[in-house]
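Postdoc handover notes: sequence design on the structure in folder B. Input tokens:
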């Protein structure tokens, strides 16, 4: 594994002055040497050679200048050997024979399921279509219960090790995209979409699931020199072919849960009413009348419609 080495370059201003001086002195020396050769003066050949060398040196040194913007890096190679990475921004000068590869250290994000579009240029090099990325599409995967679901996530990341990003993987941007998609699919298959008990579910434990997703993606991207800052689920739904059936199931579960609460409350109210009647000696009821009263109260309290009371104008036992 290639380790990142920090390279400290020279400031570009002094080499710039030297290059300008060489560019001005070179033609003068060449002209002086040529004139001296015509006059057969001593040292004219040496003067001409010095002028040519100054021009060549000034021309070559031009390729050593670089302007590094903030949150950008330059990875330096000398005939295939890694020499270091320039992380300081500013105007710099390095060995002109270095191969300099530009690398962005800025924070980037993408949505899983999106595809990267390459840059298109014409014959003259004019950019016809800039490099970009299509909008994300939800991935279809089976959850832990085997139900087909659609899921997608937004991943925020940045490069923290330039050597690993360039030399350990072929294309680190594509590597981040593919591995994030694979981690998301693996996570979705380990958890159910929804769970009635205390099991971790995709819909009921979003924060915990997102933390697991971030950890899983980071574990896969460590070898590429990439740090995952955040990973959040952006879309989660049942697949269209089972969405209607799952909606009915959720509605049924909600109705059952609501009815359970209503019955629990109604039983408590009936018990409280019977206790008050017996405690205050308002009316004495035998078992049959007590059962009828409990039945009537439960019907009134548990019904989903307004009940119509019937007033008994006779005696209690008629």
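Designed sequence:
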């Amino acid at each position: 594994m290639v380790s990142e080495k920090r390279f400290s370059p020279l400031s570009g201003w002094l080499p710039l002055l030297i290059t300008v001086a060489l560019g001005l002195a070179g033609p003068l020396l060449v002209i002086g040497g040529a004139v001296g050769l015509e006059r057969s003066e001593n040292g004219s050949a040496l003067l001409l050679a010095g002028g040519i060398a100054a021009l060549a040196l000034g021309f070559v040194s031009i390729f050593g200048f670089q302007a590094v913007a903030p949150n950008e890096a330059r990875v330096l190679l000398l005939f295939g050997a890694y020499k270091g990475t320039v992380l300081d921004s500013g105007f710099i000068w390095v060995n002109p024979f270095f191969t300099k590869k530009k690398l962005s250290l800025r924070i980037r994000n993408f949505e899983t399921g999106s595809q990267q579009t390459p840059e298109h240029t014409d014959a003259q090099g004019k950019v016809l279509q800039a490099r970009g990325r299509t909008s994300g599409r939800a991935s279809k995967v089976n959850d832990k219960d085997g139900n087909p679901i659609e899921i997608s996530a937004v991943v925020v990341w940045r490069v923290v090790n330039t050597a690993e990003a360039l030399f350990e993987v072929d294309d680190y941007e594509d590597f981040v995209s593919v591995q994030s998609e694979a981690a998301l699919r693996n996570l979705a298959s380990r958890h159910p979409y929804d769970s009635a008990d205390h099991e971790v579910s995709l819909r009921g434990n979003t924060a915990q699931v997102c933390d697991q997703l971030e950890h899983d993606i980071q574990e896969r991207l460590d070898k590429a020199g990439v740090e995952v800052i955040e990973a959040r689920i952006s879309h989660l739904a049942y697949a269209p072919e089972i969405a209607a059936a799952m909606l009915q199931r959720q509605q049924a579960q909600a109705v059952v849960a609501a009815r359970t609460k209503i019955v629990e409350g109604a039983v408590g109210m009936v018990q409280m009413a019977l206790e008050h009647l017996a405690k205050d000696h308002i009316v004495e009821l035998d078992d049959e009348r007590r059962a009828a009263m409990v039945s009537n109260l439960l019907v009134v309290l548990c019904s989903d419609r307004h009940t119509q009371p019937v007033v008994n104008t006779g005696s209690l036992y008629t």
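Context for whoever picks this up: Helices lie at 13-38, 44-61, 162-167, 172-190, 206-221, 240-279, 287-302. Don't rerun without checking with the PI first.
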